[in-house]
Amino acid sequence: MLVPSRRRLRLEMWIVLGLSLGQSAVYSVVQLLDKMTRAPLAEGTSTLNRSQSSREYFDLTYQLLDIIFALVPVVLVIYFLTENRPSGHGITAFQRLGLNFNRPGRDLLQGFGLAALIGIPSLGLYAAGRALGITTAIIPSALDAYWWTVPVLVLSAIRHGIVEEVIVVGYLLDRLGKLGWSVPAAIFASAMLRGSYHLYQGFGPFIGNAIMGVIFAVVYTKTRRLMPLVIAHAVLDIVAFVGFSLFGKAIGLG
User: Fold this and answer.
1) Which pTM does this prediction carry?
2) Euclidean distance between CA atoms 243 and 141, whole angstroms
3) How far apart are alpha carbons 29 and 199 in whole angstroms?
4) What pLDDT score does 250 carry?
5) Closest Cα to residue 248, out of 152, 141, 148?
6) pLDDT digits over 72-113, tens only?
7) What is the DSSP string of 139-160?
8) How far apart are CA 148 and CA 14, in angstroms?
9) Are 167 and 193 in contact (CB under 8 A)?
10) Distance CA 135, CA 125 (A)
11) 153: closest CA among 142, 163, 162, 164?
């Protein structure tokens, strides 16, 4: 098996992050500055799922295309992390990352446990951020009420879980480790990246998501399984997106 050089690994990381969450982090910083120079953050609003057309089936098409193309960097990561060996018996990225259905019961239990651990304090952090004026009002969904709204929001939540956990935890910790970073330094970098692409929501979500990033990365380093993290993230977003869509009450989960 050929071991990629450090230079190649760095270039690969810049490409992956530039096509995905690194790009989102840059836009998030610019959006935060834009909001801060317009009005106090407390007066700002962050909408997570926007309608993209006033025509129902064009909106549905745009929503599905967004979900599909957002997963392309994940496919690229899976390709990079798959090890090919001369014997032909390679180790797939799904095996390396623990992104499979080998232990569904335990993964579900851990996933829901992590969702509860993160979700309940997140509500308090959101309320505190709003009271301190460092967090915008977060609208998890602004989609019109169609028959497909809830299924699309569920798919969007699963998309976020897969993209963020595969790239920010599985891929980034693997590559930073190969570049010689210590585990604590790699976890810190992963958490800061996770927080940074939520900055458009304000400083409260940055802090909350950074803490979530530390917890998720620590869990991954101990278990070497991404599936519970993907489940936990998807559950958090489903509750936020679908709950807001059905009941119209703003809740701040990343």
Assistant:
1) 0.93
2) 9
3) 6
4) 43
5) 141
6) 999 999 999 997 655 556 678 999 999 999 999 999 999 999
7) ES------TTHHHHHHHHHHHH
8) 36
9) no
10) 10
11) 142
What lies within 8 Å, CB to CB, of 180 at 6+ separation is 6
- Asked if 46 and 139 count as a contact pair (C-beta separation under 8 A), the reply is yes
Q: How far apart are CA 12 and CA 80, in angstroms?
A: 9
- Alpha-carbon separation of residue 205 from 25, 56, 101, 124, 168 (angstroms): 13, 31, 31, 11, 17
| Residue with the two structure tokens 């239990």 | 109
Task: Give CA–CA dist 85/1, Å, rounded.
Answer: 5
Residue predicted with more confidence, 10 or 245: 10
For 3-35, write each residue's pLDDT tens digit: 678 999 999 999 999 999 999 999 999 999 999
For the chain, which residues make up each domain, given as ranges? 6-85+92-247
